[in-house]
Input
Amino acid sequence: MGGNEEKYVSEAFATNWIAPLGPHVNAFESSIREELGSGVHAAALSSGTAAIHLGLQILGVSHGDEVLCQSFTFSASANPITYLGAKPVFIDSERSTWNMSPMLLREAIEHRISNFKKPKAILAVHLYGMPYNVDAIQQIADEYDIPVLEDSAEALGSSCNGLSCGTFGTIGVLSFNGNKIITTSGGGALLSKNKTYTEKAIFLATQARDEAPHYQHSHIGYNYRMSNVLAGIGRGQMEVLKDRVAARRKNYEYYVGHLGNMESLEFLAEPEGYRSNRWLSCLLTPSFEHREKIRLALQKKDIESRPLWKPLHLQPIFEQELNFLDGTSLDLFNRGLCLPSGSNLVEADLELIVNIIKTTLS
Ligand SMILES: *Cc1c(COP(=O)(O)O)cnc(C)c1O
Output
């Protein structure tokens, strides 16, 4: 926590705004809007997953539709596609960002259109805070007139060519889950430059109540709104977002500074114009065996590291779905490791980690 969260939460108690609406929710939404710029509107929700669910629905995804989804991501990116009775079609990654490959995206669109199944949406992810190839993906989306749902759950504070992640898609998504760069303990937001979309999200997230003195419903609704108490935490967290990004980027710089000259290790550099929040610092080792050796050596010293996200096309829940692959995400999964990346790491922690990795490889 940064400092002011407790003050805002106490304010919620003192004013008795203990509800899924209230002044903190409005102020939190304004602070997101201000932080991201580009005229984007925000609807604060109970989770990033809820935001993806509503976002896909607002883009018109429904039963039997197909959504082109980045394979290299967390399962929460794709699960909401199935909540709507639609099907994910998985797209592999490119080397330069580790995110959705524009080449395979185009191939998939052409293939599905030639089978009379034009995809309903493109779900692209800024994984680990690194922006996806925004220009290329958007150009393809425009060319085929398919909306983009931008999963920016891991990329608050990242930008591409000076514009904030979360503002690129027809609809964008943020997460404030406990593991993200800032947190409300649990929470998310749906973003759009189109205000009717964020208004629709708020409508659906509050049980889709029509205007009437009694309870009247002409749509199926959800209970997905963020509470005023949690939005109080969010307000305090937004005040320290820049510090958190700086701390995460400093971790990454330390790892690169001390391990980057080892020929066997690779890091993902920022392409020109890209700025990653470096939510997690990731390392590519020469092989699966090297990755495991390093992971287990760290574990022995009670230090947790994790393999990169397992591609969704390899998950038991999704392995029967259609996919367009070139082996990139599988290779990243086999060789990659997320290093300790907390905003509160100190230099002694980082030094210890680096030394264990060096010793393991020598
Ligand atoms: C965390 C995360 C989500 C889901 O957000 P929640 O707030 O945990 O529901 C979606 N996509 C990605 C890439 C994530 O990392």
Q: What stands out?
A: Residues 47-49, 73-74, 76-77, 125, 151, 153-154, 175, 177, 188 surround pyridoxal-5'-phosphate (CB under 6 Å).
